[in-house]
């Protein structure tokens, strides 16, 4: 274990496990890290205990934080999509590492047993209730924007509402395809949704900065029609009466994709007024 005084003197943030476990407040509970999985040096997943009173809808996000380091008054909390479905016993997250990021420069070092602050009120628009009924559900993600799809696509309701569920994940390098093992194989044998996933789920990864079977940005593959051909769809555009879309990831992708959908006659939805597509406006640039 890292020594708090020594690491502070050296200008290095102390290990989370060496900090005093904080008390819960009205705004957040204090959970315990259960496991950590590192995908690359910039990408990792972790899970924490779930408080009994914590309710959320698959696809929602919550604020996550660490106890303040010595010298800091307040904890730093950031929005995180919950990657587990609404009925899961533990809460799973997929995280970026931003080298100088106030939260992730420390969060990247968490270990099982460490405390994690979890806000009490999950929220968000990337939920099935914000979409009108349709035939196909497209879950479009770039980078860590895959996280809410891991929640939605592990929820049987997605397969009850839609005939087909398509997850697209666009990343720079093949190694950034986190959860590829789950989405290509494990989910097909899942006790709860394996049968539905085998019949209805398609995983469509694309890689932009090295050769891959589907190369390039998802926006480009949709615009060229390649994505529809690959998915065995005869049309080269979205159908407002049949297709429903959720967008999550880089702000630029969301903006471009939403414009493309609007040009094809699809209307943005919200919790108050369900529509043809939804997005999380506040996501990172
Ligand atoms: C609604 C919502 C949901 C989010 N869900 C997730 C999630 O599930 N997983 C996750 O890792 N992050 C998610 N984020 C981003 C997250 O809130 C933080 O920004 C991230 O954890 C980095 O925190 P930080 O304090 O280290 O750096 P920050 O100061 O928050 O970020 C510094 C810069 O790093 C870049 N950046 C931050 N996060 C990302 C990212 N995820 N992908 C690419 N570039 C990024 C941006 O350019 C940002 O300006 C979400 C944000 C919002 C608004
Ligand atoms: N992942 C890495 O290996 C890596 C390495 C060094 C630094 N970083 C830093 O880490 C942060 C996050 O990187 P990230 O790779 O997770 O996220 P990212 O930069 O958002 O890229 C994720 C994927 O989204 C694609 N994309 C970006 N803009 C798009 C748009 N307008 N339309 C469609 N697709 C779009 C990217 O394609 P393009 O490749 O075509 O942009 C990439 O394949 C960034 O700030 C970056 O500077 C990441």
State the helical fraction. 10-25%
| H and E string | HEEEEEHEEHHEHHEHHEHE
What is CATH's topology name of the largest domain?
Rossmann fold
How would you describe the shape?
globular
End-to-end span in angstroms? 35 Å
Mean pLDDT: 93
Structural class, judged by helices and strands? alpha/beta
Tell me the number of structural domains.
2
Strand order of the largest sheet: 4-3-6-1-2-5
* CATH homologous superfamily classification of the largest domain: Nucleotide-binding domain of ferredoxin-NADP reductase (FNR) module
Bound molecules: flavin-adenine dinucleotide, NADP nicotinamide-adenine-dinucleotide phosphate
| Radius of gyration, CA atoms, in whole angstroms | 20 Å
CATH class of the largest domain equals Alpha Beta
Please tally the β strands and state the result. Answer: 11
Describe what is shown at a glance.
The protein is of the alpha/beta class. It has 2 domains: 116 residues, Elongation Factor Tu (Ef-tu), domain 3 (Beta Barrel), CATH 2.40.30.10; 152 residues, Rossmann fold. It contains 9 helices and 11 strands.
């Amino acid at each position: 274990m890292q020594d708090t005084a020594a690491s502070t003197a050296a200008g290095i943030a102390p290990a989370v496990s060496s900090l005093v476990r904080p008390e819960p407040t009205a705004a957040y509970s204090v959970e315990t890290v259960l496991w950590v999985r590192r995908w690359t040096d910039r990408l990792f997943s972790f899970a924490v205990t779930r408080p009994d009173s914590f309710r959320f809808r698959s696809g929602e996000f919550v604020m996550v934080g660490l106890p303040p380091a010595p010298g800091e008054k307040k904890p730093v909390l950031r929005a995180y999509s919950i990657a587990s479905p609404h009925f899961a016993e533990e809460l799973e997250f997929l995280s970026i590492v931003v080298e100088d990021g106030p939260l992730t420069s420390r969060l990247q070092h968490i270990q099982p047993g460490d405390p994690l602050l979890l806000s009490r009120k999950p929220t968000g628009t990337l939920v099935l209730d914000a979409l009108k009924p349709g035939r196909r559900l497209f879950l479009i993600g770039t980078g860590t924007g895959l996280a809410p799809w891991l929640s939605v696509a592990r929820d049987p309701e997605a397969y009850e509402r839609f005939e087909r569920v398509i997850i697209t994940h666009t990343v720079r390098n093949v190694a950034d395809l986190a959860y590829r093992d789950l989405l290509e194989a494990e989910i097909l044998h899942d006790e709860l949704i394996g049968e539905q996933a085998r019949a209805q789920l398609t995983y469509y990864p694309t890689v932009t900065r090295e050769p891959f079977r589907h190369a390039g940005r998802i926006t480009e593959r949709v615009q060229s029609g390649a994505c529809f051909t690959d998915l065995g769809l005869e049309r080269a555009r979205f159908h407002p009466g049949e297709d429903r879309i959720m967008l999550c990831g880089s702000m630029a992708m969301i903006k471009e994709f939403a414009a493309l959908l609007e040009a094809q006659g699809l209307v943005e939805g919200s919790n108050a007024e369900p529509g043809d597509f939804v997005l999380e406006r506040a996501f990172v640039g």
